[in-house]
Amino acid sequence: MWDPCDLVSPLAPESSRLQLDVLAPVSGKVGLLDAVPSSAFANGLFGVGIAIDMAGHRLQAPFDGILQDHTVSGEQLRLRSKQGLELLIQLGIDSHKLMGEGFKAKLRRGQTFTQGQALMDFDLNLLKRRFGIAHCLVLTSQTSKLSGIQAHCQSMLAMQEPCMTLHFR
């Protein structure tokens, strides 16, 4: 059986028709989802992509688009680019247990944003104190058109470099 998590690798696929870079929405070190201490995320239940071990306190828009939705507790956002790419961004693994504490949204559902715009401020120290680690997960569930996702496994500053490159068939 085909596993969508097999799409993600530090290497680019052998061939792709089109490539789309996704800029890092937070600063930190990019890694693969199998390093995340949650089987639901590591096994692609919410989508496939990368995990960033966060080093900042602000989530920025990786592209121009619209805020489709967010959880009531604020730790999870669904974004849609002008071109139709949908991303789920999750700040912290069990951060829903904070019930909104430490998250300050900058936009409401349905509002548009531009690349680099602040979407949320968050308390990184609180996340690390409560959960030991603080990952930002950048995921997509639109895998049917992808030939691969290249994870750029290195440290980076938000909005300076792509955290992953999507390769389309």
What does this structure look like?
The chain has 169 residues and is mainly β. Helices cover 7% and strands 43% of the residues. It has two helices and 15 strands. It has helices at 39-42, 124-131, and strands at residues 8-9, 18-23, 28-32, 48-54, 58-60, 65-70, 76-81, 86-91, 103-105, 112-113, 118-122, 135-140, 146-151, 155-156, 162-168. The strands form three sheets. Strands 10-6-7-8-12-4-3-14 form an eight-stranded antiparallel sheet, with no helix packed on it. β7 and β8 form a beta hairpin. It is globular. The model has no long low-confidence stretch (mean pLDDT 91).
Tally the helices: what do you get? Answer: 2
Total count of strands: 15
Q: Averaging pLDDT over every residue, what do you get?
A: 91
Structural class designation: mainly beta
What is the 3D form? globular
Nearest-angstrom radius of gyration?
15 Å
